[in-house]
Amino acid sequence: MRTEARTRSCGAEALLRLTMQTHRARVVASLGTTQTLAWASSYYLPAMLVRPIASELGVSQPTVFAAFSVALVVSALVGPHSGRRIDRWGGRPVLMTTSAIFALGLGLLAVATGPVSLFVAWAVLGVAMGSGLYEAAFASLVRLYGHEARGAITGITLIAGFASTVGWPLTAALEHGLGWRGACWTWAALHLLVGLPLNAWLPRAEYTAPAAGETPTDVKSEPAEPPLGVAISLAWVFAVTWFISTAMAAHLPGLLAGTGTAPGVVIAIGMLVGPAQVGGRLLEFGFLRRLHPLYSARVAALMHPVGAMLLLALGGPVAAAFALLHGAGNGILTIAKGTLPLALFGPTGYGHRQGMLMLPARLAQALAPWLFGLLLAVLGTRVLWVSAGLALSALAALMLIRVPSRMQDESTSTTLEEPT
């Protein structure tokens, strides 16, 4: 009788575990899809549409990119407020609203007639970006899964890592067939017809009331006040990471051309960055998830400097190695932006804290194409000394962070759980 009861108990536990895994896999697939849509129709949009937009509206291409930079600044300011809403209400209502804001911003861009309406459209898209890109998705997962959200965070970055792979050719095809305005209308429709239903399909999170006007707390976890020094170090790491990744995204072809790499080879090497990012995330999902995320972040922060030193020393023949190292490191650090605050500070008030930590990063991202372009024009390939130095400063900041043994043990134990 005891054996039979034990068998039934094990069967019930296995069924419950399978149900939870299926539920989490559905959430990851939904958020991964909506993140792909969000990134493809905002962050990766200007690269494909800047020329036709500038030509038809009678403005310069730098003006179009300036409007995009305004969107990044707006997103930085919106991020903390969006995170606070997710802490209180969960991700479902915030992300549903964001789908509508994305559609509105893209619609306004589609009907833009001059520089004023162009900047207004991108400002609205900035609101959507500040409340609907990775930080919001990470906060939504933390509200649902607490300390066990690391695997789910990795999962959505694996899917959305193909946003440029999907977004660039699709936007180009839409622009070719429908014009740039038709492309914007199509992306707006996809947010309403695909993004909104998928976000509505997310589980409801338990409402958490704010305590005496302070940041809302998660009733399932103990309050954790982050040390100021650790918070400043993380903010610096994230700002440096986003500055370098955005600068490389904008100027990698010109940088590689300066090493003597042939134009056709430059394009092929540039295409390696995306798969390398996914490869880095797979590494994090597999081997590195058994370590505290602080260690994987340290490894990732070293990859860009190593690649930069190789490129400076050996030139074009190692350009592919540089692209692979840079891409893999950037892919792991993207996950670290979500997992490090969770591991160091816990799930309490995660959304608001994440928004504050990422505010400097968004501002650095907005400045990166312009500032790095100026440095590239003056220094040539020696600008890699600048990016490598910044990356090493981020590594130094990560080395200064110490994890309490209790928190480290807790984090390690949760990463061994099945993530999806």
Description:
- The chain crosses the membrane at residues 27-45, 65-82, 94-113, 119-141, 153-174, 228-249, 255-274, 295-314, 320-345, 357-377, 383-401.
- InterPro entries: MFS, MFS_dom, MFS_Efflux_Transporters, MFS_trans_sf.
- Keywords: Cell membrane, Membrane, Transmembrane, Transmembrane helix.
- It is a multi-pass membrane protein.
- It is found in: Cell membrane.
- With 420 residues, this protein is an all-alpha fold.
- It folds into 2 domains: 38-200, Growth Hormone, Chain: A; 228-415, Growth Hormone, Chain: A.
- Helix content is 80%, strand content 0%.
- It is built from 16 helices and no strands.
- Helix 4 (91-110) runs antiparallel to helix 5.
- The longest helix is centred in the N-terminal third of the chain and has 39 residues, at 2-40.
- Mean pLDDT is 81; it is low at 211-224 and 407-420.
